[in-house]
Design goal:
The chain is of the alpha/beta class. The chain is built from seven helices and seven strands. It has a single domain, classed as NAD(P)-binding Rossmann-like Domain (Rossmann fold, 3-Layer(aba) Sandwich), CATH 3.40.50.720. It has helices spanning about 15-30, 40-55, 70-80, 105-125, 155-175, 200-205, 215-225; strands at about 10, 30-35, 60, 85-90, 135-140, 180-185, 235-240. Helix 5 links the parallel strand 5 and strand 6 (about 180-185).
Length: about 250
């Protein structure tokens, strides 16, 4: 495991599912971890208490990333409470699907605000504090590389925007020793997309391994990229999707 002792990480949307697994994994590697939530305060406190019970340090931050100041303020609060920021994990996002004709302008704005704008603004704020060895890691989607059917136009649009954003960050921040990467999950067993859900069999059929992954699979990839082993990886995407895009 990469040693993250002395590092500080911010994980957006860290109260449950993939975000909670990432927060715990980074803490296990030695990082102090701040995690954001919108309404699930009890779940966020539960993740923080587990980290602290295991000997780590954690902070929870209420942040509405649909608001223009939400992402940057989460970064600044992390610095105030934990002293610095070395690792930013942009995990918060929406799982959206439905016919193109039914996507409203309001839904489009809400999804892009969280999945794209908040990532940009969080990276902008974090970059002001990061030094050599900084990491900006965004959680994308297997829809970046393959859209297997209808009803995923909004999801594919939002998550694909992270590719250009991440390449731009890599070029601009690389001279300062800061990397920018994406982890693209495939079907992952969470409360948002359970392995026994109504579309689960179809999703399994699209993977080479024929099964769902677990949140810990994504957390392991993030921890790898966040630590010393990821120091020469930037501007690219790591697919952790069971062969979804093969």
């Amino acid at each position: 495991m990469n040693d993250l002792t002395g590092k500080v990480a911010l994980v957006t949307g860290g109260s449950r599912g993939i975000g909670a697994a990432i927060a715990r994994r980074l803490a296990d590697a030695g990082a102090a971890v701040a995690l954001t939530y919108v309404q699930a305060a009890d779940q966020a406190r539960g993740v923080a208490k587990q980290i602290e019970a295991d000997g780590g340090r954690a902070a929870i931050i209420q942040a509405d990333l649909t608001q223009p100041n939400g992402a940057a303020e989460a970064v600044e609060q992390t610095v105030r409470e934990l002293g610095r920021i070395d690792i930013l994990v942009n995990n918060a996002g929406f799982l959206t699907y439905g016919p193109l004709a039914e996507v409203s302008a309001e839904e489009l704005d809400r999804v892009l605000a969280v999945d794209v704008r908040s990532v940009f603004l969080a990276a902008q704020a974090a970059a002001r504090h990061m030094g050599d060895g900084g990491r900006i890691i965004s959680i994308g989607s297997c829809f970046n590389g393959r859209v297997p059917g209808a009803n995923f136009v909004l999801q594919a649009t939002a998550k694909s925007a992270l590719i250009g954003l991440t390449k731009g960050l890599a070029r601009e921040l690389g001279p300062r020793g800061i990397t920018a990467t994406i982890v693209d999950p495939g079907p992952i067993d969470t409360d948002m997309n359970p392995a026994d859900g109504e579309t689960a069999d179809f999703q399994r059929s699209l993977t080479a391994l024929g099964r769902y992954g677990e949140a810990e699979d994504i957390a392991a990839a993030v921890a790898y990229l966040a630590g010393p082993s990821g120091r020469y990886i930037t501007g690219t995407t790591l697919a952790v999707d069971g062969g979804y895009t093969v």
